[in-house]
Design a protein that fits this description.
There is one protein chain. By secondary structure, this protein is of the alpha+beta class. The protein has one domain: PH-domain like (Roll), CATH 2.30.29. Helices cover 27% and strands 33% of the residues. Helix 3 packs antiparallel against helix 4. It is globular.
Length: 158
């Protein structure tokens, strides 16, 4: 069950985010930099146990240059439309999408791979130029819907 309906929030903010007529939101979720959940857990645990938990966070930073380097820092809504992959900033007060901060044509996204995680859903976004970026989707926000949406779009264009 999806706890936080990001697709609905993005749909309500479509005009503000520059979603164009005929562009359909297929999937969306909340993403954070890799290791965020481990760092939050470490802060809560504190001491030696917290330091060990924090050290287990695998922080991915995109390579210099390429499409992955345009991926913004921090928490975002990651959105798949029938035309683009979008990264939107999120209001910390309301949880609503604020603005479009990065975008890539769907044809530039090679795949989104997900891994099983206890606290979150780690994912890697691979681009056609050979670059990739790692993020983690917050549990319950629809992170498991992005990969199938990209796969379906790529299959329909092949």
């Amino acid at each position: 069950m999806q706890l936080n309906n990001v697709v609905k929030k993005v749909g309500k903010a479509a005009d503000k985010l520059g979603i164009q007529p005929g562009e359909e939101v297929l999937a969306a979720c909340t993403t954070n930099p890799r290791g965020t959940m481990n760092r939050i857990l470490a802060k809560e645990l504190g001491g030696v146990i917290g330091a060990l938990a924090a050290g287990r966070g695998d922080r991915d930073t995109p390579a210099d240059g390429g499409m992955a380097a345009r991926f913004p820092e921090g928490q975002h809504y990651l959105v798949v439309t029938n035309r683009r992959l979008l990264a939107c900033s999120v209001s910390t007060m309301s949880g609503k999408p604020k603005e479009l901060v990065a975008e890539w044509p769907v044809d530039d996204v090679l795949a989104i791979a997900t891994e099983a995680g206890k606290l979150s859903l780690p994912m890697t976004i691979a681009f056609t130029d050979g670059t990739a970026v790692g993020v983690e989707a917050a549990n319950g926000t629809g992170g498991n819907t992005l990969a199938p949406a990209i796969e379906s779009l790529r299959a329909n264009t092949a």
